[in-house]
Amino acid sequence: MKIKDIFAKPIDRNIKGVITIGDEQDANVKQELEEYVVTHELQKHFHDFFKAYVASINHDTSEMGVWISGFFGSGKSHFLKILAYMLENRNVAGKPAIDYFLDDNKIRSQETVDAIQLATSVHNETILFNIDSKAKNGSKSQKDAILNVFWQVFNEKIGLIGVDFWIADMERNLINDDKYEAFQAKFQELDDKGRTWQKARNGFAFFKNTIKEALVAVGEMTEENADGFIEQLKTEYPLSVEDFAQRVNEYIEKQADPDYHLVFLVDEIGQYIGDSQQRMLNLQSVVEDLGTYTHGKAWVIVTSQQAIDQVTDHINGQDFSKIQGRFNTRIAMSSANVDEVINKRLLVKTPESERALMRTYSDDQHAINNLMTFESDITRDHYQSAENFADVYPFVPYQYNLLQDTLTAIRENGSDGKHLANGERSMLAVFQESAQRIENEDVRALVPFSIFFQGLDQFLDHTHMIVIQRAIKNERVNPDGVEHPFAVQVLETLFMVKYVDNFNATLNNVVTLMIDSIDTDRVELEKRVKEALTELTNQNFIEETTKGFEFLTNAEQEISRSISKQDVEPGEVSREIGNYLFGAKKIERKFTYPKLNKQYTFNFNQFVDDQPLGLANNTLSLKLNTPESNTNRDETELRRIALSPSEPQIIIDMPRRDDYTHNLSQALKIQKFVMDPGAYAKDARSNNIIDVKRAERVSLIEKVHVDLEDALEDADIYVGGELLEAGSKSFGQRLNTAQEHLVDEIYRNLSYITAVKSEKDIVALFNQELITPDENKQAVEAVMNRIVQDADNGSHGKVAYKSILDRFGVEPYGYRDIDIKWMVAKLFADNRIKVYGRL
Q: Each residue of 268-297: b (16+ CB within 10 Å) or e?
């Protein structure tokens, strides 16, 4: 069975998944009303709106504003259109609009149903428009930008011209004087081509004399006044919020229904306002005066990507509490139920297909879900049951949220991608197009995430698309010259997740995104993806970062090439490794000897790849071999070096892994580049990329540190010709063992010390306090023998105290000064030596 045969409705039917304000033809409206899915979230939103709206019937209100917020994909524009249809209760295909909801039990709350019926029992007229689209026809000055559009759409609603307010006033006066029909007839009679006023009026500037003659002929103006009016057309119209509100109220009061309501439904008001203080003030004035003059019978319903308080918070220095009070009804749409909408509108299966899919899942559920594995702290949705598999197929549950994140990220990071927010592209449309692309595949095929790109490419920024086009023409990426090679599909996939914050494009995750069947051999697919990633990296279309593989724009590629040309020597990498491991005390250069009450500490010299870090003035050394080392890494040779008595040392031989060395080298290259970016720092886009590179360097260093600590645990340690292999003990435990071994070997007479001493112990010797006669006996005798030996060879049988300190402070003794001092004092107290001067 083919995929196209499993759906209850044809997958290639015209769904109108793209919601465009201004496209309200009956055929389209009928489908929208029939197929509109009222999700659990929307049930509450309909309740909140109509509860507020009916409060204005037979009652004055100042709370006549509704603010609908939600990011792309939340359905706010569609919700706005549905409210317009329901309020007007437009007759569509012989059926009132609200009956499409009531007959199909779309609204489950009886309280909400009652409110809808009450709201539509009065005469409502709606004016539905996208403010940015309409503003193209009028003034876009900051001061009166909002008012200008409201005037325009109101004039058009009541049959007047929208493009010029002077001409609209002329038409309004003609209507009030009952001369409009006569004027139109006279205009057509006077026009040399017999054009009607309705067809000619948008080009009124070309018909000024005809307009003047018609006005005079029907008695609307004297010739002198008509001349003045025509001259006035050259001047700017004096826009007034108060005048606008009064005109709207006059229109409302003329209606037969005393509870008549006029509703302005404005799409994307937040985007149009942006951070303009003037436009927000203008909207506040419009809504406030409409509320005051119409007593709540003129409503304003707007959509915005941001909530009203978020929009006003971006604009400093003004009090917008009045407008927030007018927009008392606030509806926040979350996109949480986008999967429910797509499943019910697009993916409903025939009964037999649903049963077959459920059997397929029951037979292969473990294999199916094992294919969809992600490396991430974020949980990605899997199929939850056979029913869920049948509902979602041929898609995978994780794709709903990830695609939504992708579309939002593209909109925020690409200038052309901003059109995604204007309704040109919706989740429903992208899902439908993707399903159509595999409709002729046998059931068991899946829609890979990579295929979604084909529904977005025409809306992407040029800087992104040119990279894809160049990759297709690249002979290494596309050696066979095919139309859509696999490596380019991988590149497109990396672009889609490039700006998604919570997705890391690791090899494993990219493989999961490319799965196109429940029978996919994941091992074989991983091999293909790995080859594609390698070639794309080699050709500089992508780069590997700590978070995986990243798509590079043209500008990023240029900076990436410049970074790759930075010269970093192996010695620089080695030194950075040593600086971290020794500096952060991951390799402890100070060793506290455990056998003497932890009173003895030995310092080690630090070497990295045979180069010293700091002064090398200690007897013992720690020598770190990194993967950058040129040292012979043969075990036999390392044992031999570690056995050298003339150079007592511990060798730490790190495993040959290039993950941290590669990342550290890249971090050093970035550091060199950002310190001197040259011409790249002269434009905003490059500066943004450089800032990203700075952040990447920090991320790389953090990753390097983690990897270095992991590698250290796998390092081999050589001491005294022996190898302490990585095993059950931690690196720190093995290093302590090695350090103790080396100290015992080099300071072999340290064992003569049986009790560590202090100044108090020296005083006790002369107070004849009881002491243990055998304490430090061998050490005391060693000191005595040395004094005798030096006295025999010295001047007048005298020995300098400093020479005793120097001799017994080094190998093979390594005694502390205080212990040596105690031994000399002990010999003096026992009358075995005489002391001249002071100790």
A: bbbbbbeebbbbbbbbbbbbbbbbebbbbb
**Structural domain of 788:** 750-829
217 and 99 in a common domain: no
Helix residue ranges per DSSP H, 414-480: 427-437, 462-473
- Indicate the residue type of 250: E
731 in a domain, yes or no? yes
Among candidate residues 344, 350, 343, the one with its CA nearest the CA of residue 5: 350
CATH value at residue 285? 3.40.50
Residue pLDDT, tens place only, 328-371 = 899 998 766 788 888 988 999 999 999 999 999 999 999 999 99
Whether the pLDDT of residue 418 is over 50: the answer is: no
Question: Tokens in use for 811?
Answer: 């190998």
User: Do 449 and 414 fall within a single domain?
Assistant: yes
Question: For residue 765, which phi and psi values (nearest 5 degrees)?
Answer: -60, -35
Q: Are residue 575 and residue 713 in the same domain, yes or no?
A: yes
What DSSP state is assigned to residue 387? Answer: H
- Tokens for 639, please give them: 């044992």
Query: Model-level pTM greater than 0.85?
Result: no
The Cα 139–Cα 392 span in angstroms is 47
The span from the CA of 500 to the CA of 504, in Å, is: 8
Judge if 316 and 434 occupy the same domain: no
Both tokens assigned to 790:
């030096």
Return the DSSP state at 348. P
Does residue 557 fall inside a structural domain?
no
Residues 496 and 596 in one domain: no
Q: How far is CA 259 from CA 116, 292, 502, in A?
A: 15, 16, 51
pLDDT digits (tens, 9 = 90+) for 552-581: 988 888 888 899 999 999 999 999 999 999
Residue 823 has a CB neighbour count (10 Å cut-off) of: 24
Contact in structure between 487 and 535 (CB atoms under 8 Å):
yes
* Lowest model confidence (mean pLDDT) among 139-153, 294-308, 468-482: 139-153
Dump the DSSP string for 527-539: HHHHHHHHHHHHT
pLDDT digits (tens, 9 = 90+) for 214-266: 999 999 999 999 999 999 999 999 999 999 999 999 999 999 999 999 999 99
Q: Please state, in angstroms and rounded to a whole number, the distance separating the CA atoms of residues 483 and 375.
A: 31
Identify whether 115 is part of a domain: yes
Cα distance between residue 755 and residue 804, in whole Å:
19
The H or E element containing residue 511 is helix 507-513
Same-domain check for residues 426 and 493? yes
pLDDT single digits (tens) 632-681? 678 888 999 999 888 999 999 998 877 789 899 999 999 999 998 887 77
> How far apart are alpha carbons 259 and 245 in whole angstroms?
17
Give CA angle at 102 (99, 103), nearest 5°: 75
> What is the tally of structural domains in the chain?
5
Q: Are strands 600-608 and 620-625 parallel, antiparallel or unpaired?
A: parallel
Which helix (H) or strand (E) segment holds residue 400: the answer is helix 398-413
Query: Is the pLDDT confidence value at 424 over 50?
Result: no
* Contact indicator for 720, 640 with CB cutoff of 8 Å: no
Q: Evaluate if residue 763 carries a pLDDT over 80.
A: yes
**Who wins on pLDDT, 314 or 511?**
511
Q: Do 468 and 399 belong together in one domain? A: yes
475 lies in the same domain as 493: yes
The answer to the question of residue 15 being in a domain is no
